[in-house]
Amino acid sequence: MDESLETLFPERHATLGGVDVVIHEYTLAEQLRHRQPLKVISTAFADLMASLPPDNTEIPLDALYDILAANENAVLEAVAVSCSQSVDWVSGLQGEDSETLLLLWWGVNAGFFTRSALRPVLEKMARKAQESLPAGESFSSVLSTTGTDSKT
Length: 152
Known about the structure:
Layout: H1 3-8, E1 11-16, E2 19-24, H2 28-33, H3 35-51, H4 61-70, H5 72-83, H6 87-92, H7 95-131, H8 139-143
Antiparallel strand pairs: 1-2
Helix pairs in contact: 3-4, 3-5, 3-7
């Protein structure tokens, strides 16, 4: 599949354990309904990203597997939601099927976890930038296109 199409339609199809499954990106409803396990994974991923040297943007696969294993229950639930199967079905997969599902799940949903992990960093940067503005100014007033000071 063309990479641009993968961005627009981030889902993968696979036959795992004899079952045809579609691994999909989380919907808003799923994100809200399963906030706790998703937050556990996001926090662990953020901690992993923060532990890397600033010039390193590559997450070692072994380190990723370590955080997934350390948060097994949350990961099993998150994977089950993404492939519309039960936690029991997901945890019962073996060998290549289990590895394939985990990698497909991460490939489809890594963006969600990356955005969640980066959100606190971006908020901190925004606060710092806001503090550096002259008194009384805000991002909204700086970015506003409806200002009354200009002569049009």
